[in-house]
Amino acid sequence: MNSPRAPLVAPAxxxxxxxxxxxxxxxxxxxxxxCTCPFPMMGIERAKFVPLFLPLFSASVSFPMGRFxxxxxxxxxxxxxxxxxxxxxxxxxxxxxxxxxxxxxLAPPEGVEAADLRMPGVSPQMNESYLCSAFPLDSxxxxxxxxxxxxxxxxHIHHVIVYGCEMPGSEDKAxxxxxxxxxxxRYSHSPVCASQPDIVYAWAHNxxxxxxxxxxxxxxxxxxxxxxxxLQVHYMHAEEEDTSGIRIIHTDRPQPRQAAxxxxxxxxxxGPKRKEQLxxxxxxxxxxxxxxxxxxxxxxxxxxxxxxxxVREDPKSGTDKWTLxxxxxxxxxxxxxxxxxxxxxITQGDVLAARCSMENEEKRxxxxxxxxxxxxCNFYLMYWTENGQTLEQNMCFSPGPxxxxxTKSAGLNHTPKxx
Length: 419
Hints:
By secondary structure, the chain is an all-beta fold. Helix content is about 0%, strand content about 40%. The protein has 1 helix and 27 strands.
């Protein structure tokens, strides 16, 4: 390939949507406990958390919050549930949630626990709001995230992202972490993280829960660089109050393979009444062997197909060999799916590439942007490594059309046919 290719970097042009944490020492605002209980014995295939309204007893208690989130809390508790329970604090809200320590839906490995990351009763004041809330992790020991489950209470959510941060972008209970802050907004504006964030998980379009492969986990807390998890929710419409979030399935048992997520994304525009291909490609310039295992695509309503590839150049002939990692219609539920070939490895010097096929049937030009009236071209790739080392740069970005093309801008050849 004759022309240079961009390294795997996260340019500032696409990173304004990042920012994060806040201290959660003000735990005295807890007023009551909401208790729920799963009833798998009722013949319901998908176990539901059903509230019980018959109080069994009440007492005033003080106890540690658990190993995943540090600290203690004292408050009156009204217990409504029979059985063995474990209490986890819902940071920023006025009540903790109590749920069974085993997780019926995901059937994760033995010894796991669950913790909810939920928005603290936020009230988006305007359409297309991006709000963030931060959750400090246990700094004394490593924890390993092995699964994710959406816990949603709003019909107005466009997407949810969980970021890993060394420090959050704000100390507020919730803050505006979008690109376009409102001067009259209720929430202060800050980035997701104080420094470069790690993308841990993303949800949209009614995607179901995700359980990582056996032995694979995201390492957080303890000696890791991720000391806070930040929950970002994109609300399409203003609403009174929301506590949506993501349930984290985790363990303190070390896992042999460390997971990470990288994002390939583009800028660009789509002309009126026009079909367009948005392309991005970056060289892996770090000495890390990646084992991709899952992918996720994301566009808005104009996306027709999104695909990702690993590209390796033959050193003798200069011919590029393209290996499909995954391809999906973005109008389907935007879940993480297994990559097409689980034996693929990506090494230093290889290229990661993605392409979004768009169709604009409107009379206006559509640009890449943060709102539902704009578009996005995102390809998320989850991978694992054997030695615990992951990519320092977790984002690949291109300016998109009409400026950027695989062949002219990245020097790629034998590119996949456009369909």
